[in-house]
Amino acid sequence: MTDAVPILLAMIAVASAGGFLYVTRRSDPQPVADLGKVKSATWLIGFAVLAAALVAVVSEGNVALSAFAALIAVLSVLQWRLYQKRKYDAAFSRQFLPALEVIVRGLQSGMPLLSALQVVQKEIGGPVSVEFKRLLDDLSLGIPMSQAAERFAARMPAREVVFFAHVIGVQHRTGGRLSEALGNLADTLRAQQHFAQRVRTLSQEARSSAVIIGVIPLFVAFGLFLLSPSYITVLFTTGTGQIVVLLSCLWMGAGAYIMKRMVQIDA
């Protein structure tokens, strides 16, 4: 690799970052977990090229390290977006039961379903407000309530939303007291949340042990770097050491995934 290549990579990284900022500002505001394809591609390209450029400059044009840094950057961005999506879904699940209770109380007091949905959209806030606004937008376009509820469940395929859509669909086809049906659904969801919290509490020790086991190699490597830098820098300055680091990262990732699956209990 010539000396001009790191400079070229740095220029591409700056251009990618600029493109990301342009796309972000020109796009309509939306949740971080719902980024468009253009934004996602710009994130991946920008971080990958930036990481490759920085490593190329530091390592004086080492192609293997630059490619490895680009791969790590891409995986980091994907993991970050997955984390944001899970965080968004978890916040929605926590807020959905209070929102459902607001709808039930509104129906019991004689309020129409559309008005109860508007109250939830304005008062609850957070992801629930965003998703119920999309539901209200579908209704404003003339989509029937049952179809709008199905579209709602397709956007947020959580169990509670699927049950909510089924209740709305059955009530729309057969009639009946919607407040009673949604009230029973709220009681069921409340019992499920209580059971899930109990399971999470009982499995906390196993999950903490998995985290501790997973971070021990990182602390050991950092300690060796502080105490004896020449002993561990061989892993990054030689071809054999770089292969060892790559294989170690792959095995650590596989081990972390296995431990996560072992302690994961679906309530």
From TrEMBL:
InterPro entries: T2SS_GspF_dom, T2SS_GspF_sf. Keywords: Cell membrane, Membrane, Transmembrane, Transmembrane helix. Residues 100-222 form the Type II secretion system protein GspF domain. Its main location: membrane. The keyword Isomerase does not apply. It comes from the Bacteria. Pfam families: T2SSF (PF00482). It is a multi-pass membrane protein. One of its GO terms (cellular component) is plasma membrane. It is found in: Cell membrane. The chain crosses the membrane at residues 6-24, 36-57, 63-83, 208-227, 239-259. The keyword rRNA-binding does not apply. PANTHER family: INTEGRAL MEMBRANE PROTEIN-RELATED (PTHR35007), PILUS ASSEMBLY PROTEIN (PTHR35007:SF1). This is Type II secretion system F family protein. It comes from Marivita cryptomonadis.
